[in-house]
Each structure stands twice: as C-alpha cells, then as structure tokens.
Amino acid sequence: MHVQEWLETIPAVSIYALVGLVIGLESLGIPLPGEIILVSAALLASQHGEIDPFVLGACASAGAIIGDSIGYAIGRKGGRPLLAWLGAKFPRHFGEGHIATAERSFEKWGMWAVFFGRFVALLRIFAGPLAGVLHMPYWKFLIANVFGGIVWAGGTTAVIYYVGVVAESWLKRFSWLGLVLAVLIGLTSMLVLKRKAKSVSREAEAEVETVGAAE
Length: 215
Hints:
Blueprint: H1 3-7, H2 12-28, H3 34-47, H4 53-89, H5 91-94, H6 96-109, H7 111-117, H8 121-133, H9 138-166, H10 171-214
C-alpha cells in the first residue's frame, strides 16, 4: 500500500508518534526509511488540517536528536567491538568499508560530519554511534546533533508541506514524485558511499597484504 494512503488510516497523534519513532530508530543506527515516512506525513499534513505541520516537524526533530544521542551513548560505551559486532551481523550497512568511509568523514569534518550526516542516508545511521566510538566531546556532538536534526527534519517538513499546499491541484501526482525523489536521493547517496567504501576496503586490503609480504 502507498505509504501516504496507509498513513491516512491512522489518527494524527499516531502519525506524530510514528514519525518520531521511525526517525529516532534510524538515527540510533537501525536502517529504516525515516525520510520517506517524513515526506509522506508532511504531504498528508498539507491535505488534512488535523495534522499540524509544526507538531509534525517538532516530533521529527525530537526523534532525530534523541535517537542520535542514544546512538552516541551506545557507541561510546560499546566502542569498536560494537562496530565489529554490527559489521558481522549487518555487513551491508556496517561493513568495514562503510565504517572506514564514515570514520574518514568524521576525522576530516568533525562536528560538520554530524550536521551534514543528517542529509546523507548512510551517514544518518552512522553519525551518533560513530561519534561515540570516536569519543567526540559530547558538547560538540550535541550542538551539531541539535542543529542538524532541526534543520533536516524541520526543514524537510516545511518545504514538503508548503510545496504541497501550493501544488494542491496536482497533489496526488506530487505525492508519488516526492516519494520517488526521496528514494532516488537516498539510493544515490548510498551508492556513492558504497562505491567509496569498496575503494577504502580495497586500499585497506592492499595495505594488509603489503605489510604481510614485508614481514
């Protein structure tokens, strides 16, 4: 069933809770379609007055911030053994190449990696746990996490909502286009990161082989 059509069958309060929960779990490190759910809910809010876009954006932002914070705490406590365990259980999302790519981003950009990670599908999953594993000072993480969560979740809600209101005459068609666009953006970012991750993995394997040969 179309995501938006499914959301129409549940009360507004449940939509707020669902959006916050899915985005929170995604931010915590669980691969879920948080962006698709948020886009669908924002489009639905532009059609139905009982769904308040401000409350929706606030719930999405809260889910993003809280989820990332929990992910940070888990990553700080679990450390690299946690990443190794996740890599063994979920190699498609937490493989060594993906982790290496995310870690390089953190080393290069620091707080900005947490902020901009909100807008990249794969980094959105890694940001909290990896910041904890790398022992980023919590105050730095919190600032980037709060601003990133509000700009991404609140901004996405506002843009999709107001575009939906303006384009009310062709809203049904736009709902499909909006979802397809969100999926394409997410898939493209994941494919780019996957390609980089594979490159990093090959480089790491080559270094290991070189060291082994030298010994």
